Amino acid sequence: MQGEGPYVGVRQAFVRFSGCNLNCKYCDTDFSNPGTCDYEKGEGSGSFEKAKNPISALQLKDMMQPFKNLHSVSLTGGEPLLHTDFIEELDKLDLSAPLYLESNMTLPEQARKVKDRVAYVAGDFKLPEALGLENPEARETREAHIENTVECFRTLRKSETRDCFCKIVVSRDSDPASVVSAVDAIAGYVSCVILQPETRIESPEVGINAQSSVRSLIELQSMLLEKIDTRIIPQTHRMWGCL
Ligand code: SF4
Q1: For residues 116-129, average pLDDT
Q2: Is ligand 1 within 6 A of the CB of residue 22?
Q3: Cα distance between residue 90 and residue 117, in whole Å
Q4: Residue 154: which CATH number?
Q5: Are the C-beta atoms of residues 58 and 84 closer than 8 Å to each other?
Q6: Could you tell me which residues come within 8 angstroms of residue 210 by beta carbon, excluding any fewer than 6 positions away?
Q7: Cβ–ligand 1 contact at 27 (below 6 Å)
Q8: Interval 105-119: pLDDT, tens
Q9: What is the CA(43)–ligand 1 centre distance, in A?
Q10: Distance (Å, rounded) from C-alpha 143 to C-alpha 163?
Q11: How confident is the model at residue 209 (pLDDT cuts 50, 70, 90)?
Q12: Domain residues for 43?
């Protein structure tokens, strides 16, 4: 089940790619052991087998056979845009469900390569503070990051054949002004904005401390609703112990 954003609850097959070009403070992805991958043998069975990496697109299609009635196939990570050749191959295989790209939206050239192959784009806008770029000395890197992000949204924007929405992870350290400025930059390209309260999984105590207060999130949502449909949706899969 998709656990985040406006498609929460739809049935998906998840394809998790290894590696990422960023290093977010709240990252919960385990990049260790890319030599093998785990794949689930049946829907929700919790029973996994190992396969040697890299697997081919055709192998992946075979692995997906037991998964029925899918809304879409989630390409997630890590960062799937580091694997555009694979995504192109997968699309050519005529899967039973459309591709749903979950991306950090920082690789515009790669975004151009897959723009006609994905039907859904769940794009993050990584706030500078999530990447340690909030300080004055990081200005050039911060500006390049924002420019790349906006270019990715422009390239993968909503259209008649593709939905594109923006997810922003918000913690108590997030600067509301940087959230508003991010939304201003991409509002014309997306169907809605999701404010996702940060969840830290290393320790429940840290998780509570890292979260924004309900009140500050609602105030932020009020400001953004003037511009675009804005929803507050936490990571629901964490609530019921799903992967
Ligand atoms: S973009 Fe996603 S996978 Fe990459 S470091 Fe950030 S949270 Fe982790």
Answers
A1: 96
A2: yes
A3: 9
A4: 3.20.20.70
A5: no
A6: 26, 171, 172, 173, 198, 200
A7: yes
A8: 999 999 999 999 999
A9: 26
A10: 26
A11: low
A12: 5-239
